[in-house]
Amino acid sequence: MDSKKRHLKHIVIVASVIPIVIYFIAGKLLMYRDIPAHKKPPASSAEQHWEDPGPYHVAYPRNYRFIMDDTPTCRTTTPFLILVVPVAPSDVEKRNIIRQAWGNEKLVLGQQVETVFILGLPRGKEARQQQEKLQQENQQHHDLIQNNFLDSYHNLTIKTMVMLEWLAAHCGEASFVMKIDSDVFLHVPNLVKLLLDPSTANQNYITGLVWWHGPVLRNPFIKFYMPRSVIAESEYPPYPLGLAYVMSLDLPGKILGVSPQVKPIYIEDAYLGMCLKRLGISPTDPPERTMFLINPTHPLSSCSLSKVIASTTTGISQMKSYWERVRQGVHC
Fold this sequence. Notes:
It is a single-pass type II membrane protein. Its main location: Golgi. It holds the Pfam family Galactosyl_T. Keywords: Glycoprotein, Glycosyltransferase, Golgi apparatus, Lipid metabolism, Membrane, Signal-anchor, Transferase, Transmembrane, Transmembrane helix. The protein is an alpha/beta fold. It is built from 9 helices and 11 strands. The strands form 2 sheets. Strands 1, 2, 3, 4, 5, 6, 8 and 9 form an 8-stranded mixed β-sheet that branches. Strands 7-11-10 form a 3-stranded mixed β-sheet, covered by helices on one side. Helix 4 crosses helix 6. The chain is globular. The relative contact order is 0.13. The N terminus is likely disordered.
């Protein structure tokens, strides 16, 4: 009988201790989760321990690395302007059209212009075959810059930040960079003309279609919802919309320098504005808002095309059509 009592006593003690141990371990895990990624101790393996950043943040900084990067841009050349186009791995048709159209403009108003594409790893069942095709494509063009993050819409902020890493590491002697989406028409001469204007600053300069007083959306049923627990303010700091923005090449390093102090959200252009605010730098409106167009009425008139720098399009055929019209000559 005494033996049974002692056995029952041991069971009760163990049962009471287990919840305490679980609570202690869970608390440690939660504390670790809240440590910024750049301050966490390295994992025992080469790859850091993965932790889900949740629906509103992204896993940056992290030990991402470039796995395809043999472009001569900024290594054997010193361009005045670099055009960086974020693309999905599967967007080969868009890349080819850009190479044929505005991405093929190399000397504009006496200034050297170069175009590169930045992308992450392909996903899905055909990822390996897609990666092989990317390597073949790059062997032909030498203009793909690939990093080993998983390429997805949710990871656009990661793509932007590794773009800035690449620029800061290789392009310190260049003057300007434009980040431009693959479905956007670019009037390269108008852009270069703006950048050559004496009134355009060559430091702390970033312009595009600037979004001033952009509201933080609180409706959980709409795109870009952001809860107060992530961003308490009712407005985002001013930022240029992600379709196309241009910056002086002193900014990539400065933005990277403050980024560890600003927890990255998945809305990449808004996050850029948050970093700019931490730097005390405000975007600059272009001389004319018609220089940057989002969702305009298509087709654009000759007058609009003669003034525009960047405009969204309905597809690659329209983008190519606009480029051919500009090349033939447009005016008001």
